[in-house]
Design brief:
104 residues; alpha+beta; Immunoglobulin-like; four-stranded antiparallel β-sheet; 8 strands; 46% strand; disordered N terminus
Length: 104
């Protein structure tokens, strides 16, 4: 029950925090474009191993990728419907969680 409430709150926050054509860049992570049509790119500034996860609004994991030597990942969500998703990236010194919008 608590888990569903958290996801719902995150969805509401994401609707207000993601403007049209908003690319997300933090000190160690860059995600673009956001919103995206089918694919988007993640640049990790540090060359460190990270785990990339994408969740739907119901909290179900729809994508996972472990990177070990690349600083760039191109993610293809063309098989998924237009919606708001949540991107999680974890690694040494990186704890990133932001909404991304698929809109084609």
């Amino acid at each position: 029950m608590f888990y569903k409430i958290v996801i719902s709150l995150l969805t509401i926050v994401s609707l207000f925090s993601c403007r049209k054509d908003e690319n997300i860049q933090l000190s160690n992570v860059e995600v673009f474009p956001n919103p995206f049509d089918e694919k988007f790119t993640i640049n990790i500034i540090k060359n460190i191993p990270v785990e990339i996860n994408i969740y739907n609004k119901q909290g179900q994991q729809i994508f996972i990728l472990n990177t070990f030597s690349s600083t760039t990942a191109k993610i293809d969500l063309s098989e998924h419907k237009n919606d708001i998703y949540f991107l999680s990236i974890k690694g040494d010194g990186i704890d990133y969680f932001k909404p991304i919008i698929k809109n084609n």
